[in-house]
Amino acid sequence: MTELSMTELSPQLLLYIATAACLFAIGVYGFIVGPQTLRRILALNIISAGIFMLMVVLAYRGLANGQARASPDPVLHALILTGLVVAVSATAFALALLGRLKQTQASPEHQP
Amino acid sequence: MMVLLLVLPLLGALLMLLWPKVAPLLTLLTAAVCSLVALQLVSRVSEQGSLQILLAGWPSGLAISLEANSLSSLLILLTTVLQLLVALYAVATYRRDKLGAGFWPLSSLLQLGLTALWLSRDLFNLYVCLELLGIAAVALVSLSGDKAIKPALNYLLLSLFGSLCYLLGVAMLYGAYGVLDISALALQWQANLLSSAALVLMTLGLMLKAALWPLHAWLPAAHAAAPAPVSALLSALVVKGPLFILCLLWLQLAATTQAQAMAPLFSFCGLAALLLGGIAALRTPLAKNMVAYSTVAQLGYATLALGLLLQFNQPLFAAALWLFVLAHALAKAACFLAIGEMTATLGGKRLNTLKGASQTMPLAMFAFAVAGGSLIGLPPSGGFLAKWALLQGLWLQGDQLLYLLAIVVVTLLSAAYVFRVVALAFDRAKPVKPDFAPHIVPQWLALLPALAVWAMTLYSEPLLRLLKQEGL
Amino acid sequence: MSLLLFDTALCLLLLALALASMLSRQLVNAVMLYIAFGLMMALAWARLAAPDLALAEAAIGAGLTGALCFSALARQQLDITAAALSWPQRLWPATFVVLMLGGILAALLQLPSVASPLVAVAQAELINSGVSHPVTAVLLNFRSWDTLLELVVLLLALLGALPVAPAEKSATSWSLGLSWSRLLAPMVILLAGYLLWAGASQPGGAFQAGVLLAAGAVVLRLNQQLNWLSWCNFWVRLLVVAGIAVFVLVALLALWLTPANVDAVWLSWPPLLAGGIILLIEVFATLAIASTLTLLVVGEPAPQHNRTESV
How many CA atoms does the CB half-sphere of A23 hold within 13 Å? Predict the structure, then answer.
């Protein structure tokens, strides 16, 4: 692991891993730039999609090498399922807060 | 015993959801029982050493491992006791402050999240705990109505972003080593680009969640917008969760070279937080914001202690780090409860409302002053103990004049913002009239943790011994 | 070779959709692009030998999140278009992100190509877990504590969202939609039951089944059916809470039933009963997930005592 250019990964895996990392980066960019809150919530979802994709690829590793094993890494798959539920809960909560925020901003008595 | 500490708040919260009428009673009950159990846990751990369980009885690596060492058990005790105190305060002010019915189950679930976090030694489980903590905290902030929605949303988004950064780090580490258990990971750890990148990502996320400078900007608005008991819980406990994980990562996982490289950064961030947070606390016109900025500043001590610990590997710094956390938790709970009580009674959010408070509400003001003494680090308070350990450590290293000087400056700064309030309160010329007769019970409840933080010195010997030997 | 071509096309499409979703001026377009992105993501995961995850991602990433975003959009005015950002406002974040991406990519290149040693351990212990599908075994036996906490997170999101849920706009139901949804309901229940049952040996499981049920319930609810489904109803609260409650109670029971000569361990199922216990937990978790998600999507004005209006 001394040389940067040395990698044991197959081109397919590299492709998917790079995509996952790029998705993370796109999400981070969207999160920082915004500007609407809904867009930032979407950006968070893209970030999490990127991370989960990385995990899916990591779970797939052994299969691509043609190792004698039938199924991908179940631990990672379980982690992803857990992560998905957590992500969707958080998104739902954020959207509820956003809805309330818009409502209070829209109603006239709250205008200073 | 650990199971009881986890199951009780959870079952309590479920029952509260089914029968909202008995919720306050149930909260008090679970918090009281959990405090007793936590006390038992502390004594057992200090006698027999740390307890470990592999959940569900599967082999290590496959199972999630929990560990109650002396630090974890102390933090659990702190959590349950503060939970009990805050619940008592909430019961005492329930009618007046119109705290939503949501407070009770949410605070119980918050307690569950914190306890689970202090015990967990599994990277992914820690992620779930972090999310649990974050969502519970945001839900609690949003309880105080429409004005809190914007800070709550901001808090939620940043907290989610922080946990996702952490999660990416976890994914990278699992990809590299194929384990999630921290002790198993520590055995195989190699200092390479991959592990460094994962550490940096996780550190960024956790610093954002723990509101460590320079990623603290969300904290003052969120903590100030929350109802008083909630801000007490948030400032005293919730920001410490990510800090705990941060210490776990850097003390148990990171290789020496990585730790050495990161240490000056932590020290710098700590000092900057102390300076800038202190200045902001001195300048803000709002009472609760002042206390919130003081949290930012005080977290700087913990960051500084972590940086020094990584640099010099001196056990005194570990003791200083956790003493700061304990002392700050107690003092800040007292501060928020006292300030909350005073602003509610005197009717105003600005610091000016506290004018003459030593006359109108002597007890609450006394609580604030006593807690403030610990924040400054006056002997013989808990804050002093922590600072003393820090100074002693620096002294033993020798040639650390710059740090010593900086600590003197920031101590003066914290003294300035505490005395600003105290001086206002003793300005008896035209005291602000209270809106209604001050309640006695909540003021006493604010005083209790303030007294407890001074009582920490009575146990300074065992505390120092426990925290020094653990390191973590 | 053609497979590599397919992979490349899929990856490029994913990136393009994500980028377009982040850069598009109109929020509506952003949401639609995101939904398309979610579907493509599901396809990618199916390609990567993760059909159960693809199912979940299609249900959540594309379906649930999309529905939630659209209902949020419906509440705020659609006319909000972003003011064009100036170059420095775009350039600095972009530079930062590109630098970060470079660092992460360089780090990821060092990943080993072998799978985790845990895979072998999990395979070996699978016989003792009570189910034959490894993912279900991990979720509900090896790492069940995570799953329990995850259910708590879901509950917390509901608890947080309920008091702030904006007032519901009353919509009249469409008669064709009504009859359709009545036809749909039994099929959805049947399908959800199958997914749940399949979870023990094939891709599927509590979560996917729960999302499916929730989707059915949302459709019915939007057509003014199932009006009893609200947080004020004690039985609904019981249903929401049941997932966690059954989980904890079964675990306590298992703890209590452990023979005296064995160390009692939290969340460990007796090997003989494990299959039944897991199915029991899954059934209640499915119901709880379905009702929680339905309440989250449909939302409702909170009961009066729950609101803390600041004056």
Answer: 32
Based on its alpha-carbon atoms, the radius of gyration of chain C, rounded to whole angstroms, reads 23
- Under an 8 A CB cutoff, do B157 and A58 touch? no
Asked if residue C185 lies in contact with residue B43, where contact means CB atoms within 8 angstroms, the answer is no
Rg (CA), chain A: 19
Domain that holds residue B362: 257-472
Contact at CB, A19 and C15, closer than 8 angstroms: yes
Identify the residue among C2, C6, C53 best suited for mutation to test binding to A, counting A beta carbons within 10 A and taking the highest: C53
Does residue B68 belong to any structural domain of this protein? no
Rounded to whole angstroms, the Cα distance separating C101 from C104 reads: 5
Number of domains present in the structure of chain A: 1
Contact B304, B324 (CB under 8 A): no
Residue where the block lists tokens 């200083």:
B320
Domain membership of residue A52 as a residue range = 11-110
Identify all chain C residues contacting B101, using CB atoms and an 8 Å cutoff. Answer: 305-306
A61 touches chain C (CB under 8 A): yes
Structural contact between residues B318 and B470, judged by C-beta atoms closer than 8 angstroms: yes
For residue A35, tell me if it sits in a domain: yes
Q: Copy the structure tokens of residue C123.
A: 């395979």
Q: What angle do CA B377, B383, B387 make, to 5 degrees?
A: 75
User: What's the N-to-C CA distance of chain A in angstroms?
Assistant: 61
DSSP 8-state symbol, A25: H
Q: Kindly report the CATH number assigned to the domain that includes residue A27.
A: 1.10.287
* C34 with A89: Cβ contact below 8 A: no
Largest CA distance in chain A: 68
**A14: closest CA of chain C, how far (Å):** 8
**pLDDT of chain C, 311 residues: tens digit per residue:** 688 888 899 999 999 999 999 888 888 888 899 999 999 999 999 988 888 888 888 888 778 888 888 878 877 665 555 566 778 778 888 999 999 999 999 998 888 877 788 888 888 888 888 788 888 888 888 888 999 999 999 999 999 888 887 665 555 556 776 777 777 777 878 888 888 777 766 766 778 888 888 888 877 777 767 777 778 788 888 888 998 999 999 988 888 887 776 777 788 888 788 888 888 888 898 889 888 888 888 765 444 333 333 32
Residue B99 lies in a domain: no
Structure tokens, B255:
């290789």
| Other beta carbons within 10 Å of C228 | 9
Which ipTM did the prediction report?
0.90
**Residue from the list C112, C150, C248 with its beta carbon closest to the beta carbon of B11:** C248
**Burial (CB count within 10 angstroms: exposed 0-12, middle 13-18, buried 19+), residue B233:** buried
Query: What amino acid is encoded at B64 in this protein?
Result: I
Distance to chain A for B153, nearest Cα, Å: 6
- How much is the pTM? 0.92
Say which DSSP state B181 is in. B
Rounded Cα gap, residues B157 and C275, in angstroms: 39
Position A3 in a domain: no
> For C131, phi and psi rounded to 5 degrees?
-130, 165
Asked if C132 and C200 touch (Cβ cutoff 8 Å), the reply is yes
For residue A1, being part of any structural domain is answered with no
**How many distinct structural domains can be found in chain B?**
1
